[in-house]
Amino acid sequence: MSTFAKRERLLLADLLETVGPEAGTLCEGWRTRDLAAHVIVRERRPDAAGGTLIKQLAPRLEKVMAEYTAKPYEELIQLIRTGPPRFSPFQLKQVDEAANTVEFYVHTEDVRRAQPDWTPRELDPVFQDALWSRLERMARLMGRGVPTGLVLRRPDGQTAVAHRGTPVVTVTGEPSELLMFAYGRQRAARVDLDGEADAIDRLHESRQLGI
């Protein structure tokens, strides 16, 4: 069984440790300490993590996030490396792969690409295929509400329709880059956009991408 999620988790922990608690990220308003706290709360505090989607839980999420960001940074790194508690659903490999492969990949890139000297990361074809499989399943959810039609295309021609409409913007890139784009990191994604100039500008300005 593949262990992409475990690999990406350890890469994220190592990177967070290397850059320190106050480095920038692609997540607006977050330093690395905040991102580390988010990762931990998401898998260790389901009572609060729902605040990202449920308005009534937002105050609790804010309170719990503050508690974790106040912890020693070294403790946060260790909690990420250790992973979820014993009886968490995330302990199941199938759940971990499904829920965390993309999560940890994107957040690792959130840290990497916010640094001034970042360089593209070489990903093996098997991992690219795994990311594409997940992107295909999530594309329409991630593209809901965008102001244009949106098609995501791999260099080999495989496509996923993220949003039906006109005019259409076609975004071409490796699955890893398309994921970054679809998660709202448009400016940091190494992709090519094809479509009317006005539609491309509207898409870049949109805050509707991502889930």
Describe the structure.
The protein is an alpha+beta fold. The chain has 2 domains: 4-112, no CATH class; 127-205, Nonspecific Lipid-transfer Protein, Chain A, CATH 3.30.1050.20. 52% of the residues lie in helices and 9% in strands. It has 9 helices and 4 strands, in the order H-H-H-H-H-H-H-E-E-E-H-E-H. It has helices spanning 4-19, 32-44, 46-49, 58-69, 73-82, 93-112, 125-142, 175-182, 197-205, and strands at residues 149-153, 159-163, 168-172, 192-194. The chain has a 4-stranded mixed beta sheet with strand order 2-1-3-4. Strand 1 (149-153) and strand 2 form a beta hairpin. Helix 2 packs across helix 4 and helix 7 (125-142) runs parallel beside helix 8. The radius of gyration is 17 Å and the shape is globular.
Spatial strand order of the main sheet? 2-1-3-4
The total of helices stands at 9
Count up the domains.
2
Number of strands: 4
Residue stretches low in confidence (pLDDT < 50, at least 5 long) are none
Rg, alpha carbons: 17 Å
From the spread of the alpha carbons, the general shape counts as globular
Helix content: 40-55%
Structural class: alpha+beta
Give the percentage of residues in beta strands.
5-15%
pLDDT averaged residue by residue? 91
What profile does the largest beta sheet have? 4 strands, mixed
- C-alpha end-to-end distance: 27 Å
Order of helical and strand elements: HHHHHHHEEEHEH
Q: What would you say about this model in short?
A:
The chain has 211 residues and is of the alpha+beta class.
